[in-house]
Design brief:
It is a single chain. By secondary structure, this protein is α+β, with helices and mostly antiparallel strands. It is 23% helix and 45% strand. It has one domain (2-117). It contains 3 helices and 4 strands; from the N terminus they run ββββααα. Strands 1-2-3-4 form a 4-stranded antiparallel beta sheet, with helices on both faces.
Length: 126
Amino acid sequence: MSTKLVAGQAIAETSCAVHTVLKLDGVDVINTSYTRLLWRTQKIDDRWLISGLRGIYIRDTLAPCGPNQDLKIDEKKLAGFRESYRYLSYVLAAGGRPARDDLPGVDRPKAVEALRATERRWLEQV
């Protein structure tokens, strides 16, 4: 974890793994999304409170929940999704829910830098 503090405001950066159980073609699957979280915190009345949370996707995995379950992945469809959260996008799309393509991820360094710049500006507006 890293933290930058400026007069009553701070940005803390932490690693995170989000585990989500979903269904893919009738099979219970677990998606693990690895991210970096940027926490905005502010000191208000001598208490540190969370005032914002942003995430940067790094990569994700997908596995069947049961050891004897078969998981069929269409590699051609999978290749159409962004690398930093491709399995989550694949499962969402298979369930009829469109996956967002605009989230910050390490596969889009300019988006990550723009997010970090926004957080720095927030920190410096004291």
